[in-house]
Amino acid sequence: MSGDRRPIGVFDSGMGGLTVLRAMEAALPEESFVYLGDTARLPYGTKSAETVQAYALQATQLLLAAGVKMVVIACNTASAVALEALTEALAPVPVVGVIEPGARAGVAATRNRRIAVIATEGTVKGGAYARAIHALDATIDVVQQPCQVFVALAEEGWTNSDVTAAAAAHYLTPLFAGGDGPDTLVLGCTHFPVLADAIRNAVGCGVRLVDSAATTATAVRSALAASGMAGDGNGKGGARFFATDAPERFARVGAIFLGRGIDAADVTLVDLRP
Amino acid sequence: MSGDRRPIGVFDSGMGGLTVLRAMEAALPEESFVYLGDTARLPYGTKSAETVQAYALQATQLLLAAGVKMVVIACNTASAVALEALTEALAPVPVVGVIEPGARAGVAATRNRRIAVIATEGTVKGGAYARAIHALDATIDVVQQPCQVFVALAEEGWTNSDVTAAAAAHYLTPLFAGGDGPDTLVLGCTHFPVLADAIRNAVGCGVRLVDSAATTATAVRSALAASGMAGDGNGKGGARFFATDAPERFARVGAIFLGRGIDAADVTLVDLRP
């Protein structure tokens, strides 16, 4: 039986979602991908829910036009405030977000039933992680901390800088002070996995770090199987990239998140403005 | 003789331009102001020249509609790439940018004819400061350094944090190492004046820090006088604020830059999308 060779669409406000693409490429080698970063309007993390919804709707329409069989919202902020609207607007194409997989990873990891979530201002303000965790287990204690500066540090490529170490200590030390702090930290922004070393140093080795990337790949695999859309490897064309601004910067900064080089010539500039 | 009581329009991608408004409020107490921050699409500093031009044109049309007599582009990135287009599009309303005043302040301050400029990626890439300085004195040596993380640190309000100290050391120490470094540092982004203490600690007390705010206020005074548009104090209504997203965040973060509190109720949400 031949598989569904259409690509999977991946959407993010910018380059951070490439950490999710990286996990999907590793977990789903038989699939091909189309990635869209809305770099002309990033970051979403400091913007209102209404604005993020409008931007995400415009952007994902482009993925539909590119013929994708599924859309992965590889952006915590957009998943937090726009997943429901996108699921409705893009139907019957399935839409997968990163919040529920991240919450699921956190719940699976915690032993003392205390989870800390770090994310952008927008994600924390909306409280989507706390809701998703409590939907899985209402007895878990959740603390949330916005870490807006981490986004800039990740984009600058300062993954092992003393600046990042100082920022991690500033944000995280208060969350884990005392003997009965959370034993699990959810990296609730797709930028944060590249700062994992500095974050781990700040919180200590007794805290488990989880992120949405691997669990989102698992969720995508399940969704593909459920809908009979799994690829067979013959449509495999790797990944194509679209950006709404500055393809050169997308390629340069994106390589930090994807973990491999991106040729600027492989990044197509698109205009989403109505 | 009565003066021109129409307000002066001030435009920035976000809240950083409030450092320029602060200087103008101090220097021009007889004037009133309308400030517009394009917070739905900030930051401009990592976006392409074409995108910044399009955004700035849309935004400044709103100031014209609000009846301003002059427009101040209180954003280095927009001044660097869009001043000419805006001057043409908004004519006959005069347009004043912040690059030329900043360059003028740097040239006036240097003794050893070596100037360092720190700015966003977009401003540095366009080279507008080097051109503006060389237009005033072609023999001056100019070094430029993008300091993108400073924007996030300023917006987080980490004006005296060890994180900011570490970032300042990272960016600035190489520029001023050795005995014959620049004696003048131009803060070529309106966010940076609030980080002046950390910047000064990193570069040492032998380096003069200059920014565009005070010299832009002087340039505005001259332009008002030249065009017979100076106010007489009777139209004085302080400042009104417009933002394209998240008025609450504008008020909270904006207070860092304006140096006084902003009531969120005084910030009007506007939609620039066509």
Plain-language structure description:
The structure is a homodimer of 274-residue chains. Chain A has 274 residues and is an alpha/beta fold. In chain A, 46% of the residues lie in helices and 16% in strands. Chain A has a 6-stranded parallel β-sheet, with helices on both faces. A 4-stranded parallel β-sheet of chain A has the order 6-5-7-8, sandwiched between helices. In chain A, helix 1 (18-27) packs across helix 11 (247-258), helix 2 (49-65) crosses helix 3 and helix 8 packs across helix 9. The longest helix of chain A has 17 residues, at 49-65. Chain A is globular and about 55 Å long. The mean pLDDT of chain A is 93. Chains A and B meet through helix 7 and helix 8 of A and helix 7 and helix 8 of B.
Helix-strand blueprint:
The structure is a homodimer of 274-residue chains.
Chain A lengths: L7 E5 L5 H10 L5 E5 L11 H17 L4 E4 L2 H15 L4 E2 L2 H11 L4 E6 L1 H6 L1 H9 L4 E6 L1 H8 L6 H15 L7 E4 L8 H8 L4 E4 H15 L12 E5 L3 H12 L8 E3 L5
Parallel strand pairs in A: 1-2, 1-3, 2-9, 3-4, 5-6, 5-7, 7-8, 9-10
Helix pairs in contact in A: 1-10, 1-11, 2-3, 4-6, 4-10, 8-9
